[in-house]
Amino acid sequence: MSEERPPEGGPSQSTQSKPQSQPASSSSSGPTTSSQSSSGSGTLSSVDTIPVTLPSVPEEPEAEPWGRLLPMARGFRSHDCVEDQYLFGRDSKCNYVLDDPDNRGSRKFQIYSKKHFRIYREGCEVFVEDYSNNGTFVDGILIGKNRKLPLVNNAVLALSERRNKVFVYIDLMSHDQSSLPKELQEKYLLTRQIGTGVCGEVKLAFERSSCRKYAVKIIKKKNFQSEGVS
């Protein structure tokens, strides 16, 4: 039998196998723990914490009221004056809203203004300013729209009518006037002390009718000795 040979110039059928390279073995290291990361020199690692005590913050004391309104009529409530001013009226934007359900159907309630009056203080003096066409009264005296009068201890506020007394004002920085002569009380409103002397003291006063300022000197008789007495 004759052997078959591939034609000359044809591709060779024999192939040579090449050995496959094996992957190099690598040594893997485990995760580094915090104990391993900390050095032996005594330094702290990133996960170590130090307890810190924060100083306590003192609470701000509550502001003390400088005046108080006590109700004299049904449907009104007491009110402490802490801020420098308060607006009173039927408008919901007022600081003190005249919205008691028992008063809404009354004739008096209908003549209260949306912005009826304002109570405010300037330094140590307290004033009431009238915004109403129907009037605000202090101890029976009509203030007048866009005018003001000083407000002192035990003053009575009335709205729309002199007899409609709704508040009595208590001055918590009180300057009592009960010991003053009646004629002086009727014409002037005495407020804070503005000076002292050997014979007595000087107080700031406001004329009730015009709100004009005056200085009133009060002399205490007990500081003087009667004649003939050593």
UniProtKB/TrEMBL annotation:
<feature type="region of interest" description="Disordered">
    <location>
        <begin position="1"/>
        <end position="65"/>
    </location>
</feature>
<dbReference type="InterPro" id="IPR011009">
    <property type="entry name" value="Kinase-like_dom_sf"/>
</dbReference>
<dbReference type="InterPro" id="IPR000253">
    <property type="entry name" value="FHA_dom"/>
</dbReference>
<protein>
    <recommendedName>
        <fullName>FHA domain-containing protein</fullName>
    </recommendedName>
</protein>
<feature type="compositionally biased region" description="Low complexity">
    <location>
        <begin position="10"/>
        <end position="46"/>
    </location>
</feature>
<dbReference type="Pfam" id="PF00498">
    <property type="entry name" value="FHA"/>
</dbReference>
<feature type="domain" description="FHA">
    <location>
        <begin position="86"/>
        <end position="143"/>
    </location>
</feature>
<dbReference type="InterPro" id="IPR008984">
    <property type="entry name" value="SMAD_FHA_dom_sf"/>
</dbReference>
